[in-house]
Amino acid sequence: MKGKSFLALFVGVSSLVCAFPSAAQFAKPEAAVEYRQSALYLMGNHFGRIKAQLDVSKPDLDVIRSSAALIDVLKTLPFEAFLPGTEDIGDTAAKPEVWTDNERFKKLAHEMQDKVSALNAAAKSGDVGAIRTAFGETGKACKNCHEDFRKKR
């Protein structure tokens, strides 16, 4: 019984500890912009790591698996930080349409998140053909959103 009580307490405290920093980090609009840019940067970096592996004759499946798993964890984080009032903060690539057509933006974000889950599942399988297919589908989902909601740089 003590083990269950400790586990319940640990989960409860962990949830609170994680919740407070999330709320606090968006106390300023600049923090939300930095948060979403950081998450998107990490996602892009690990997507690039997967691509680099798929471009060689014998991909390192451990690299692919770890990167796909990390992208799967990160996939929702940037979208928590596209908040009203962050449209014109700093050097952002987000177009105004993120806020004026937010329903479509969210739809495309969810589609990308579904594709990322499929990529992670393919990576876990170790089937390089399935990984290539899922990687291509994920890339298309990213591109769909970038075309409408990201400024070209």
What does this entry look like structurally?
This protein is mainly alpha-helical and 153 residues long. It has one domain (28-149): Cytochrome c/b562 (Four Helix Bundle (Hemerythrin (Met), subunit A)). It starts with a helix and ends with a helix. Residues 4-24 have low confidence and may be disordered. It contains six helices and no strands. Helix 3 (61-74) runs antiparallel to helix 5 (102-125). Helix content is 75%, strand content 0%.
The CATH topology comes to: Four Helix Bundle (Hemerythrin (Met), subunit A)
Given as residue ranges, the uncertain stretches (5+ residues, pLDDT < 50) are 4-24
Beta-strand fraction estimate: under 5%
Most strands sheet: none
Question: What is the overall shape?
Answer: elongated
Q: Which helices and strands occur, and which strands form pairs?
A:
Layout lengths: L1 H24 L3 H26 L6 H14 L22 H4 L1 H24 L2 H22 L4
Helix pairs in contact: 2-3, 3-5, 5-6
Kindly summarize this structure in a few lines.
The protein has 153 residues and is mainly α.
